[in-house]
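Hey all, sorry for the wall of text incoming. These are the two entities for the joint prediction.
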Amino acid sequence: MSDMASTTVTFRVLRGTIINDKLVQKTQDFEVPVDARTTVLSALEWIKGEIDGTLTFRRSCRASICGSCGMYINGRTRLACKTKVTDLLDGNAFKNIAPAKSAGVIEVGPQRNQPVLKDLVVDITPFYDKVKKLDPFVQDGPEKQIHVSKDAFSQVNMVSNCIMCGNCYSDCTAMVENPNFFGPAALAKAYRFVADPREGHKTERLQELSEKNGIWDCTRCNMCIDACPKGVAPMEAIVKLRSLAMEAGITDNKGAKHAMVFKDDIATWGVLNEPFMLLKTAGVVGALGQLGNALNLAKKGKIPNPFPFDHKVEGLDEVKAIYQELKAHPIDVKTRSNDDGPGAG
Amino acid sequence: MIQHDILIIGAGLAGMRAAFEGISAGLDTAVVSKIHPLRSHSCAAQGGVNAAINPKDDWRHHAYDTVKGADYVGDQDSIDLMCSEAPQAVLDMDAMGCPFSREEDGTIAQRAFGGQNFPRTAYAADRTGHAMLHTLWEQAIKLGTKVYDEYYLLKITTDNGRASGAIVMDIKTGKLHQIKAKAVCVATGGYGRLFASNTNAMTNTGDGLAHAMRAGAAAADLEFVQFHPTGLRNSGILISEGVRGEGAYLIGKDGQRFMHKYAPNKLELASRDVVSRSMTTEIMNGNGVNGGVFLDVRHLGRDLILERLPQIRQLSIDFEGVDPIDAPIPVRPTCHYTMGGIRTDKVGHSEQLPGLFAAGEAACVSVHGANRLGANSLLETIVFGKITGKEIVKFVTEGAGKDWPNVDSADMQEVSASIAQLKARPAEGGTRQSDIRKELTEAMQEYCGVFRSAEGLAKAKAAVEKAKADMKKLCVDDKTDAFNTDVITALELDNLVLLAEATVLAAIERTESRGAQSRVDYPARDDANWIVHITSTVDKNGNVTLGRDPVRTVNNPDYAPAERKY
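and here's what came out:
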């Protein structure tokens, strides 16, 4: 690897300045000498120190624990301190990094889904405001347990790895559609409290999380799991919250209804009855609101015949058997993921 | 103008814990931090926090271990206070929601740490500092603590010999603000960035300490800087002692082991200071490569490396470009912690500058003396965050700090002018800050590091003088106001230069070897002359002047100086 010592790499940095309250962005190329050790952060530090002190970015610990240096690097949001230049150039399957699209070029821009302040610095206020809205602290209350068992924090530990870097928030696809969505990090943080035996208001939290912009707004696209540098897997936390909410009987919302109809359809028919699903999820009035969409879909022949299935789906008996088995031996969602993330035990 | 009863600088564990006391007492308390509170370097502490919680343990044993670990220059009253208050301080954190790891019966789990006679280190997996920091941040949200997030400290102001507030810069806009306060608490951490190789965050530049000195407070124990033997040569990232525990060798350029020359029995597993000194000797004798030696695990074999040292292997590949299966890992002793700080009384109050308090690594209460024990640093933050916080509350409600101090707008103009001057300096004939930083930190590493001598320290002093001169020519590229990190890092460097001067002078002054100070020309500990703190203050011309301050004792015969054997 030491033969790379004299190589230079092009850093294509998306720079930004606020001029008259408007963000003006343009890319600027820097030729940076790299070797096998160079990280994106050390390269940016080199540019700032040797070439251009105006290049602006946040950084602190250099060891992926403070969460300062989240950036959009070659198509994904990553921590600059943890991302090696060689991995970006050649790809690294183990780290889930694809080779650079244009050879020898590394593109660096600010995190997405957040307002840019300057160059690679974004305004983190909205991100933190959402976390704050969820009352992120252990509360006394009726559901507080005094005894804390040895593995009581096994659930808490994984989400406790979160360093609030905002990378999941930046890559979240649901956020693009609904900027008011709490986002993966805030919901993972919420799970940290729901799963803590010492928390006194678990059900109340689940109720609040089941409302608009909460757990049911996640599209389960997996991007947050990929983006997380600490193995928190926010989406898994969201799925656990959904299950816990439904177990707690919090089902009077579109998300929970949708999940139940989905399950009922599969258990009964082996396939989804999509027109009726809308009706059952959104109700008659809600479904009427979607009438325009439905007519468009119907025109293009995209709505299947909603009336009695005249054929039995192949394998339906097996599907039913799976559901019966699950009913007899339910999976405890809380134990699905052990605390084996980085930094565990 | 902004005003708060209590102004805390720094939002790490010590600062947030002190703020908790201010808010809980119903006082208007604000925290200023140059980075978001969760970015504070407290988050990097892994191991844990010491406290004699177990009924079989005794805080007196903890205190004894600490006095001895400090090589007998720790202040015994503060050490007793810290160790006796430790269990409650940890239980407080638990009650706030910190997820400490548990024993089978649900009690807080504890493990063994170096230099102690009982497993008294509580922990939250291997991210204890992170868990504690998030917990205190959660409490700050719960209590509605005012945090000036991304505001940078430019000056601690005084009024007739009393701290009166601070001048700070809103980094986002570049706008300066004068904040008036009845009490100011500095909790800005250490200054490990002064050394080229260090485990510290890039923000650990001792800002609060340097400004407290300029405002008239004394610092103490600055010569005591803790080095960890095996940081990666390039980045300073820690390679745990556990690797040597697995049987790794330390080898030089010649490929041969050398520890038998220095510690014939314990070899690579001798104590940290011994190993650091041995490695440095080899490097100075020309048996190093690029300022480092090597940690060799190849003989352990591929399977064992993959099975037991996967993270170490990954760190080595990622940050040194070396796969330890095929090649030895370049390492060098790396600066880890600064024992010195703002000199305070037993409860964190500066004696030279009333109204100025300090807590955590920024303070010299002095519980660590010449050498800090592992897991006592997190403890210091939560015990003295709490105690100093309560002391501040007393000071502003019923003490000498009851009345508002006066502030002078001339301070604001002076600071504003100096920043304008820095920005106006032309690039032509100027010096880049990266050059000054590199030269200074390399000289500190080489001449004021693990090993010191009059000869080497003279070179370090010359490097400090050169840096002081160069600072006058420092030019920045970024002339704008908003988020000007070019200016911030230049000002941080200015703070480091002051601390470099104080550290080198104190290291020259202490003509003995004690704890982290190892003088080759004075290899013995000299209890007759040197059971004393060296203090550093800044004179009118901005130069450092040294003084002495006695070590506070408590008349405990167990604390009488003895040879440190482990």
